[in-house]
Design brief:
By secondary structure, the protein is α/β, with parallel strands linked by helices. The protein is built from 21 helices and 14 strands. The chain folds into three domains: 122 residues, Rossmann fold (3-Layer(aba) Sandwich), CATH 3.40.50; 174 residues, P-loop containing nucleotide triphosphate hydrolases (Rossmann fold, 3-Layer(aba) Sandwich); 154 residues, Orthogonal Bundle (Helicase, Ruva Protein, domain 3), CATH 1.10.8.60. The protein starts with a strand and ends with a helix. The relative contact order is 0.07. The structure holds adenosine-5'-triphosphate (ATP).
C-alpha cells in the first residue's frame, strides 16, 4: 500500500485530505510540523509527502528541499499563497505539484496519484546502454580501461581518473556511477578549475544563511546533494591547498560542516576525482596534500591519449560523424580512404574532444556525401598548426590524381584563394581594403580574385 504523509498545522485540512486519501486506498500519516516529519524520517520514508508552506518551525519549502536532496518523494506543496514567487520557489526546489488552498478534494487526490505515477515511471524506465555508455574503443588500451571500470565500479572505493584533456575522464566517472550500486542515487559534479576559489568551499560544503555577505539563504553543498550517490570532482589538481585540508578532514572523518555552520554533517558519498596533471609531481612540489591524494587515489584508472590508441580513430570518427548528422539533421556522410588516413595520422592535442569537434565541423562543411582529404585540409588551415594543411593538400592531390580528376592545379589555387579571402573578409567585417592589407595583397588583386571566384562559381556548380 502506498504510504502518503501529510504535513499541515491546520487540523481540519489534514483530516479531510487524509480521509479522502484513505478512501483512495492510501495508508496516511499526519504531521502538524515540519520538524515532526524530519523526526519520522529517521525511521521510515513516505512514498509521497503533501506539505503546507507556512507551519510553525521548519517551513514546507525547507522540508521540500531536504527531501529532494535525499531523493525522497515526490513532494506536493499546498498553500494559500499562490503568488509567483512562492509557486516558482516550490517548483525550483523540486516540487512535483502545487495545490492552491482551498482545494477541491477530488483534484487533490488526482494530483497525488499523478505524482506517484510519474515517479514510478521514472524508476521503471531504465536508461538504454547507448545513453549511459557512449564510451567507445576497441584498442587494447581501451579494453583494459573497460575492464577496470567494471571491476572498480562494483567496489565502493574512491577512484582517481588520470589522463590528458579530452580523453573521456568525465565519461568514465559517469560510467563508474551507472555501473555501481549507487546508480539511481544522485550523481553530482564539481569542476574545481571552473569555480572561483573563494566560492569553492561553500559550493562543496554548503553554507548557512548569513555565513558571509550575500548568503541570504542556507545552501546545500555538492557533498550534501550527492548524499547516497557519487560526487565527481573534476580537475582536482587545481584545488586550493586550504580547501584540500578541509576535504581531507571530511574524507578522513566522514564528517563536515557547512560554511558558517556548527552542526556536523555525516555523508555517505563516493568520491571520484579526475586530473590532467601529474598529481604525484604536485605532491612532491608541495602543491597537493599527500594525505588527500592517498584518500582519493585508492583505485586508479588512467586514460590513454588518442595518439597512443590510433586504431580507435576510425571507429570514433565514424561514430561522431553519424551522431552529428543525426543531431544536426543533416544528410549522412562518409569518409574517403584518403580522409580517413589523414585523420589517423593527424595530431590531436585535444584528444577525443578535438576529433569529435573536427567531425562535427566536417558534417556541416564538407560539400559532398564523401568527405575528401581536402575538406579536412581547409579546416586545418584555420588552425594554423604548422604544415598540417599542406599534408592535407598532398593527400587531396593524391586522391584526385588517383581518380583521374582534371584541372587539379587550378582547383587547388581557387580553393586557396577562396579560403584566404573568406577568412580575411570575415575577420575585417567585409572591409575589402583592410582584408587585402591583412593578406598582404593589393586591393586590386583582392577585387580581381573576388571577381574570379564569383565568375568561376556557376561553371563549377
Ligand atoms: N571513448 C570515448 N568514446 C566516445 N566519446 C568519447 C570518448 N572519450 C571521450 N569522448 C568524448 O570526448 C569529449 C571529451 O570527453 P570528456 O569530457 O569526458 O574528457 P575529459 O578527459 O573529462 O576532458 P577534460 O579533462 O578536458 O575535462 C566528450 O564529448 C566525450 O563524449
Amino acid at each position: 500500500m502506498t504510504e502518503t504523509w501529510i504535513a499541515d498545522d491546520d487540523r481540519g485540512v489534514r483530516f479531510v485530505l487524509a480521509e479522502a486519501l484513505r478512501d483512495a486506498g492510501h495508508s496516511v500519516r499526519e504531521f502538524s510540523t515540519g520538524d515532526a516529519v524530519r523526526a519520522a524520517l529517521a525511521e521510515s520514508r513516505p512514498d509521497l509527502l503533501v506539505t503546507d508552506v507556512r507551519m510553525p518551525g521548519e517551513d514546507g519549502l525547507h522540508l521540500l528541499e531536504y527531501l529532494t536532496r535525499r531523493n525522497i518523494g515526490p513532494v506536493i506543496v499546498m498553500s494559500a499563497y499562490t503568488d509567483v514567487a512562492t509557486t516558482a520557489a516550490a517548483y525550483r526546489a523540486g516540487a512535483a505539484d502545487y495545490i492552491a488552498k482551498p482545494f477541491d478534494l477530488d483534484l487533490a487526490v488526482q494530483a497525488v496519484e499523478r505524482a506517484l505515477a510519474a515517479a514510478r515511471e521514472e524508476v521503471v524506465v531504465p536508461p538504454t546502454r547507448a545513453d549511459t555508455h557512449p564510451l567507445l574503443g576497441e584498442s587494447a588500451a581501451m579494453r583494459e580501461v573497460f575492464r577496470l571500470i567494471g571491476r572498480v565500479a562494483a567496489s565502493d572505493l574512491n577512484v582517481l581518473i588520470t589522463g590528458e584533456t579530452g580523453t573521456g575522464k568525465e565519461l568514465v566517472a559517469r560510467a563508474l556511477h551507472d555501473e555501481s550500486a549507487r546508480r539511481g542515487k544522485p550523481y553530482v559534479t564539481l569542476n574545481t578549475a571552473a569555480i572561483p576559489s573563494d566560492l569553492l568551499e561553500s559550493e562543496l560544503f554548503g553554507h548557512e544563511a548569513g555565513a558571509f555577505p550575500g548568503a541570504t539563504r542556507r545552501h546545500a553543498g555538492r557533498f550534501e546533494q550527492a548524499e547516497g550517490g557519487t560526487l565527481f570532482l573534476d580537475e582536482i589538481g587545481d584545488m586550493p591547498i586550504a580547501l584540500q585540508a578541509r576535504l581531507q578532514r571530511a574524507l578522513a572523518g566522514g564528517e563536515f560542516y557547512r560554511v558558517g555552520g556548527r552542526e556536523f554533517m555525516r555523508g555517505d558519498v563516493r568520491i571520484v576525482a579526475a586530473t590532467q596533471q601529474d598529481l604525484d609531481a604536485r605532491v612532491t612540489a608541495g602543491h597537493f596534500r599527500a594525505d588527500l591524494k592517498h584518500h582519493l587515489d585508492v583505485a586508479r584508472i588512467h586514460l590513454p591519449s588518442l595518439r597512443d590508441r590510433r586504431d580507435d580513430i576510425p571507429l570514433l570518427a565514424k561514430h561522431f560523424l553519424a551522431q552529428a548528422a543525426t543531431e544536426l539533421n543533416l544528410p549522412p556522410k562518409r569518409f574517403s580512404r584518403g580522409a580517413m588516413k589523414l585523420l589517423e595520422q593527424r595530431e590531436y592535442p585535444g584528444n577525443v574532444r578535438e576529433l569529435e569537434n573536427l567531425c562535427r565541423r566536417l558534417a556541416v562543411i564538407a560539400p559532398a556525401v564523401e568527405i575528401q582529404a581536402g575538406d579536412l585540409g581547409s579546416l586545418s588551415m584555420g588552425q594554423a598548426r604548422g604544415t598540417e594543411w599542406t599534408e592535407a593538400l598532398r593527400l587531396w592531390a593524391q586522391d584526385a590524381l588517383a581518380q583521374g580528376e582534371p584541372d587539379i592545379h587550378n582547383r587547388a589555387r581557387e580553393a586557396l584563394d577562396k579560403t584566404l579571402l573568406q577568412v580575411a573578409l570575415l575577420a575585417n567585417d567585409g572591409h575589402r581594403q583592410n582584408a587585402a592589407a591583412a593578406l598582404g595583397v593589393g586591393r586590386n588583386t583582392l577585387t580581381r580574385k573576388l571577381g574570379a571566384s564569383r565568375k568561376r562559381r556557376p561553371s563549377n556548380g
